[in-house]
């Protein structure tokens, strides 16, 4: 899938990256989906909010996991 984020520590422009989503990752809790970034790390909810991550493109299978990922997201306020 393709994601974009705002580079707040650089030029403040949107950057695009390729990522995956899976339940088979060391950051997964109780089988929950994890968005895996190009460096292999999981995208945490704080970074997703602070860097304004957006989904640019996702398959139908990825969309199902993304819906579950969003459902598990803690309230921001």
Summarize the helices and strands and which ones pair or pack:
Elements: E1 2-6, E2 14-18, E3 20-22, E4 34-36, H1 45-50, E5 54-57, H2 60-72
Antiparallel strand pairs: 1-2, 1-5, 3-4
Keywords:
77 residues, alpha+beta, 3-stranded antiparallel sheet, two-stranded antiparallel ribbon, 2 helices, 5 strands, 25% helix, globular
Mean pLDDT, rounded to whole units?
Answer: 93
What is the percentage of strand-forming residues?
25-35%
Q: Helix count?
A: 2
Could you give a short account of the major beta sheet? 3 strands, antiparallel
- Rounded to the nearest angstrom, the distance between the terminal CA atoms is 28 Å
**Outline type:** globular
The radius of gyration computed from the alpha-carbon positions, rounded to a whole number of angstroms, is 12 Å
Major sheet strand order:
2-1-5
Strand and helix order: EEEEHEH
Write up what this structure looks like.
It is a single chain. This protein is of the alpha+beta class. It has one domain. 25% of the residues lie in helices and 26% in strands. It contains two helices and five strands. The strands form two sheets. Strands 2-1-5 form a three-stranded antiparallel sheet, with no helix packed on it. A two-stranded antiparallel ribbon has the order 3-4. A hairpin with a 7-residue loop joins strand 1 and strand 2. The longest helix has 13 residues.
